[in-house]
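For reproducibility, we list the full input for the 6-O-phosphono-alpha-D-fructofuranose complex.
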Amino acid sequence: MEDSRIALPIGTALDRFIKSRQTAFPFATGELSQLLRDIALSGKVVNREINRAGLINLAGAAGSENSTGEQQQNLDVLANIRFSRSLEKGGEVCAIVSEEEDEIIEVNRNAHYVVAIDPLDGSSNIDVNVSIGTLFSIYRRVSPEGGPISMDDVLQPGKDQVAAGYILYGSSTMLVFTTGRGVNGFTYDPSLGEYFLSHQNMQIPKDGSIYSINEGSYHSFSQGVKDFVEDCREKGYTGRYIGSLVADFHRNLLKGGIYVYPSISKSPNGKLRLMYECNTLAMLAEEAGGMATDGTNRILDIVPSDIHQQVPFFVGSKHMVERARELIEDAKMVRSSQ
Ligand code: P6P
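The corresponding predicted structure, in tokenized form, follows.
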């Protein structure tokens, strides 16, 4: 039996990696391993459909809206179907929270895991061939097996996640995830239909010189956020904002940087959803030595009030997130002294 403390070599297949890590959890029954495999498989299917979208008339709007009133794209709907059906059939999931569903999907009362998912984030970029992504968070239920799903099972703080990750459909397709023992990246080889370990124990640089924020909303930023943007400009940092959260986060994870979606006039609580966007990336960021806040508070400590709760989001290199928090606090002090 492989010792999970030994770093597995680059090129290790995902299945082999998951199996080797399972031995790290002595009481592991293989359920979480199977759940991760189910998500990875769905990612392969969605990847294929994304790559063919323009050819099989899958691009474009679906003519419907999601839980927060955003226009759904055809691929949003399709990705939601693919992931939801796979999770429902896999047997490991008792409940699903999806950006594309208004309500919780109750699945199997005898199962032990809750999955929160954004099946396809950034999908408005599909028509212009920009990278997009799937984000997922996995929690263990807290209510007794076999009983009804309780809101306590679902509205758990991000620090209680047992796993989190994303699939980036970019120039190559990658699965990046953590089970609380570091962050590892797997690159998908479509010719073999398998993911292979390509990025071991990913660490985000403590400092960075890239900031990702939609400066088109500058006028409605708080003074503290304006001060942070000015600070980045004065330091000669590079502005990079793709409009696709997973792509911006992945670049910052590799190179160092910060992604910010603050409170703005049209989204006073920020635009990003706590349960299946912010918590996912916050767990990855912290596991990789980075940081994630709502500008002030640690994201992973926030207890969700509802499944589609939005929060302001600052995530990335630790020292950059700390700098943003410092300037936000300074601006509050100045305002309170006036
Ligand atoms: P805006 C995509 O809709 C998304 O959720 C993220 O992927 C992206 O970073 C952000 O919203 C873009 O939002 O308001 O800047 O266009």
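Confidence is low (pLDDT under 50) at residues 1-5. The two ends are 65 Å apart (CA to CA). Both points were considered when choosing residues for closer inspection.
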